[in-house]
Amino acid sequence: MTATPATCDRILDAAERLFAEEGFHATSLRQITQAAEANLAAVNYHFGSKQALILAVFRRRLDALNEARLARLDQALAGSDQPDLEEILEALVVPALALTHGNADDGHRFMRILMRAFADRDDHLHRALSAEYAHVMRRFASAIVIALPGIDELKLRRQLDFIVGALTHTMAESCSKDARAIADDLVQFAAAGLRSSVSVQKPDGASRTLEIHS
Amino acid sequence: MTATPATCDRILDAAERLFAEEGFHATSLRQITQAAEANLAAVNYHFGSKQALILAVFRRRLDALNEARLARLDQALAGSDQPDLEEILEALVVPALALTHGNADDGHRFMRILMRAFADRDDHLHRALSAEYAHVMRRFASAIVIALPGIDELKLRRQLDFIVGALTHTMAESCSKDARAIADDLVQFAAAGLRSSVSVQKPDGASRTLEIHS
DNA sequence: GTCTATACAGTGATAGAC
DNA sequence: GTCTATCACTGTATAGAC
Q1: Which of A173, A189, A209 has its CB closest to that of B214?
Q2: What is the pTM for the complete model shown?
Q3: Cα–Cα distance, A47 to A65 (Å, whole number)
Q4: How far apart are CA A113 and CA A126, in angstroms?
Q5: A–B interface: beta-carbon pairs under 8 A
Q6: Domains located in chain A, CATH noted
């Protein structure tokens, strides 16, 4: 018999869907409990607070993600004393992107959650700001094309996103006060990443440097 | 005569300070207007809404940041047909990190704002989650040390932050559905960045490969 | 234990007087 | 421009029904 899920799970499901559609801050507990056909007080009974409910929604997905990551990491480390760097990085990256950019039903919904949670830093502030300063990024993209002629422009756009993400994350999380050293590291890291895509993917064999990873 | 600033500016200053200390969501308009010695309705009169006030606080700082970036970019592009990639990236990165990790009075306060705004994705959710899954990142750090023996561990920690930032940002912002291509690009980008720090900075000359960027 | 009804203090926003 | 008064709504807490 497939009875309706328990109240606790109905709340989690409704919360996940509404958070993804509207954002955390914009979704009220009354909306959630109404969609879950539960009483308002049930969420505080089962989870303790709205914040704890948000955490529970995340935990349900992140547990699975990190299990998948570690399983793939074990596979990359198994059998060899000298594991492959690319395989290690794939274990970190692929399960995450499959979750957010994949087509599976649950995954797709969770992608929108994560998108809201991490992009929607206070409602639509981030979207408004990045649109407002998009011209700055366009200027940098043009400059990099000059510095690295022949770079694939779609790939460059992605890589600029990588760099901006690394920079933003570092600005937000890093506790170190040593801005100079961090900046040096990030510049070196980003430059190597950008150069690697030029040397690896140029189809006309002018100066292929595939032996770069000897 | 240095009269007290206009109401509009007093609100901006108070909001910036309180947002930085408490976060957006946790700071009420009543706190702000009280600290600014203004009336509650003044914020809606001058800015229209709480969201618009947040945006105004950001714009005041980001305008200066992006001006500094573009000025430095122009400098990097001037005088040569073939600008230096590192100088371009420094123009993007250094002014931002100077603002958030520097010691200037205003900058330090703004650093805390940005930190709250971008890290404090819904109160302390992000802190709780990253603590909960910190062991996963530790496992990956260990794996990378095996794959890249001799890598500096402080630098590796920073670079892992770069990768996580790039990944998070991409999960949140990227609209492309092509998870496989994005993952490939990120893996290649990150691997090149990591390898560059090993080959460039090893002090014992065993296998210096500085000619890697020939 | 699970769930409900209800009450409460505090929020952002707004209309209208001064 | 500024202020007071008020509104609908929020998350949370509690007392009690099943």
Answers
A1: A209
A2: 0.84
A3: 22
A4: 16
A5: 318
A6: 7-119 (1.10.357.10), 133-209 (no CATH)
